[in-house]
Every structure is written in C-alpha cells, then in structure tokens.
C-alpha cells in the first residue's frame, strides 16, 4: 500500500471524493501509474460523515463485500491512512449498509471501533527478535519504482523489540534497510546517528558524513525518508537534519536544508 498525490477536480467534501478515487473503475483509476490498482471493489458507493471529535464515519454499500480476501488488511490500511491525512480527521469508523463493522465481511479480520494510523499501521512487518505483545512500532519510508521508472515512497510499519526511544530506533531501522525485496534502501548502510534530540517541537538529528556524495550532497531520497519516518513515528511536525554538526545540508536536487523541515505537502506526485 502506497500513497499517491494527484490533482482532481474541485468538489465539496474532499475526503469523500478521495474515497471515490480509490474505487476500482472509479475516476482515479486512469490516473494511476502502471502497476498500481485501486483497492475498494468496483461499484462500491461510499458515504462519509465527519463528527466533531474528528471521527470519519465511512458507510460502504453492499458491493464493498466483494473484495479479494488477500486485500482485506490492505483496504483497512489504505482507507485509514488516506482519510487521516486530512487535518480534521483523527480516526476512522467503518460501516456496511449503516451497520457498524466489527469484523471485515470476507475474511473476518477484526475491526476496531476507531481505526488510527498507530493502531492499524501500514504494510506491517516484524523485525527479527520482536514479539507482537512486546514490541514498538516504527514507521519507515523506503522506495520502490515501476517498470517505466516512476519512483515512489512506501511506508512500512515495522515491529521492533520494545524501546523507549522510537525515534532513534526508526533511523537505525532505516539504515538497516527494507525487509521486503521489492523495496530499496534510502540511506547508506555506513550512515551513523551522531546525535538525536528534541528541541521544543523540532526533532534534530545529526548524521555522519557517510551520507554525503562525492560532491558533498545528501541524496534527496535520504533526506525525505528521514523526515517522513521521524515525523510519522514521533508525531512531531518538524525535523532538522545536520551532517557532522553542520545545519547547511544540500540535497542532490540542489535544495538547501538549513531550517527544520516538515513532511512534503504532496507525496508520490502524479501529474502535479
């Protein structure tokens, strides 16, 4: 499951329109890169209400129950992560023809009354030595690409042995690289974390110069993956990256990162 940012016609209720673009055969299908597919079954109609406490109540029509069993968790992840991208939405509640879903209709996966990013995760995997009941989730962003060269970030929730410093653990896991052979690493295995500290609402990370290229640039994918992984794992809005203590960090696409940065407004852009 990977996020896609695309330009769509203006409509009242952008969150509801987002779900319509995730339906197989819907208006978003023709805009997807090769190899991507919509997860919500063809013909599904979706109603969406957002309550004052930030819950998106999603009501699917009967057609929703026709998805493939192997897509069950992917659908939960995709719907939850797509809707919680909106500032007004903190959690998601699912219904089928007006009835609350306590389990998915095809393979019976339990459904919490309120789904959040932290409770559902995305592309879940377990690190060696981690027990499900004694683990800490960290969300990492690796890369993949289509056959025609479209490169995109893929979020992965990795369960690791329990730690009281998930931010540092997340960067260490990024350096270790992906467990899925279809994903590629985003930061050199020679990278080291020299320091990691929180200052007000900013997480500051100092990396060694192994992350630099020969022309003293840091790969753009390394910078973005660190920012994405740390903000998603910690909930903090800003990350400042230093290299050997220097706050003047140039990326390989000639951007200067000398101030705290936030997540990009549009991730994995298509036609933007």
What's the helix and strand layout?
Layout: E1 5-6, H1 14-20, E2 46-50, E3 55-60, H2 72-83, E4 91-96, E5 99-100, H3 117-120, E6 125-126, E7 135-145, E8 151-161, H4 166-176, E9 193-199, E10 202-207, H5 220-234, E11 238-243, E12 249-250, E13 256-257, E14 269-270
Parallel strand pairs: 1-14, 3-4, 6-8, 10-11
Antiparallel strand pairs: 2-3, 4-5, 7-8, 9-10, 12-13
Can you describe what's shown?
The chain is α/β, with parallel strands linked by helices and 272 residues long. Helices cover 18% and strands 26% of the residues. It is built from 5 helices and 14 strands. It has helices at 14-20, 72-83, 117-120, 166-176, 220-234; strands spanning 5-6, 46-50, 55-60, 91-96, 99-100, 125-126, 135-145, 151-161, 193-199, 202-207, 238-243, 249-250, 256-257, 269-270. The strands form 5 sheets. The protein has a 4-stranded mixed β-sheet. Helix 2 links the parallel strand 3 (55-60) and strand 4 (91-96). Helix 4 (166-176) packs antiparallel against helix 5. It is globular.
